[in-house]
Amino acid sequence: xxxxxxxxxxxxxxxxxxxxxxxxxxxxxxxxxxxxxxxxxxxxxxxxxxxxxxxxxxxxxxxxxxxxxxxxxxxxxxxxxxxxxxxxxxxxxxxxxxxxxxxxxxxxxxxxxxxxxxxxxxxxxxxxxxxxxxxxxxxxxxxxxxxxxxxxxxxxxxxxxxxxxxxxxxxxxxxxxxxxxx
Length: 182
Description:
Elements: E1 2-8, E2 11-18, E3 31-34, E4 40-45, E5 50-52, E6 62-64, E7 79-81, E8 95-97, E9 112-114, E10 129-131, E11 146-148, E12 162-163, E13 172-173, H1 175-181
Parallel strand pairs: 6-7, 7-8, 8-9, 9-10, 10-11, 11-12, 12-13
Antiparallel strand pairs: 1-2, 3-4, 4-5
C-alpha cells in the first residue's frame, strides 16, 4: 500500500491509501502488474521503484505516459516520457520528452526530442536534437540536425543542419553567427 494525494492542478482533492486489487506481492524485486484476467502490463513495481519498460518489455528502456514506447519490441536504451512518446519506436538510444515526441521513429537511433510533436515523423533519422514544440516534426530521414525553438526546422528533410532561436537563411544559424555569415 502507498499513501497518495488526489489533486487537480494545485488543489488537493483528497488523500488515501493506494492498494492494488490483485494484491501484487511487493519485494525488492520488480514484479509485473497483471489485471484480473492475468494480462500483464509493462509496469513493474517493487518496494524501491516503479518501472515501465514499454510494450516490448526491454529492461534497458524507460517509459512513462500513456502508450509511451508502446510498440517497441527489440530497441533498447530508450527513454520516453509523455503520451505516445516513442510510441512506434524500434530503434536504440533515443530520448523523447513530451506529448507525441518521436512517436513515429521506427528505425532511427541516437535522437533526442524535447517538446510536443518534436521529431514526430523521424522514421529513420539518426543523431538529431530537437528542442521545442514541433521542432524537426516532419524530418523523416534527416540526420545530424540540431533544431532549437518552437517550429524550428519543422519541414527540414536534409541532414547536417543547425538552427537556433532566430530564423535566417543560412544553414548554421545562431544569432551571433548568422549575422557574421550574411
